[in-house]
Amino acid sequence: DGGITQSPKYLFRKEGQNVTLSCEQNLNHDAMYWYRQDPGQGLRLIYYSQIVNDFQKGDIAEGYSVSREKKESFPLTVTSAQKNPTAFYLCASSGDRGIYEQYFGPGTRLTVT
Amino acid sequence: GQNIDQPTEMTATEGAIVQINCTYQTSGFNGLFWYQQHAGEAPTFLSYNVLDGLEEKGRFSSFLSRSKGYSYLLLKELQMKDSASYLCAVVSGGSYIPTFGRGTSLIVHP
Asked: What percentage of residues in chain B have a pLDDT greater than 90?
């Protein structure tokens, strides 16, 4: 079955620690995205990548970093510089450049205390 | 930038019809998506409108008026499982990346 996976589902970290969220897809999609969702908020774009070895900042990239070394994988690192890291993080992918619907992973709920 | 507006919350009765509105202000409109998101889960694609008019897909229909910057999602024969958040997302300018509204939380009661 083709799909997009994120792990883990729940993640707990202490303040000051960096943490990396995994995102893998086997849909052969070129484009991948990371969103953050807070209660009562829509999805806000953190980073996106249109092709391997290339990525662009979204609206709220500060305190986050990404890599795209393989087409299938787009991990997100939440660094200690992110002021309010506790949130629900969603990874998505879509077809080639152009307007296609996005396929979302199940999300990772990160809690930093 | 874009301004996308949706009602925060709506309630409806099982078996009824509900219309969820989305208004937007943008330049260079390219298309509008609707997604459904159950609590704690991933959003799933419902519809995509690029031309004016109504697109019907089973119990769900989506309407677009580009001149008015307006769309709605129509849900018929409501079921309890339709209780979810409905996200409107607009693609505009030279980008293919959608900008999401805050979502409308729909509560369906018996």
From this structure: 88
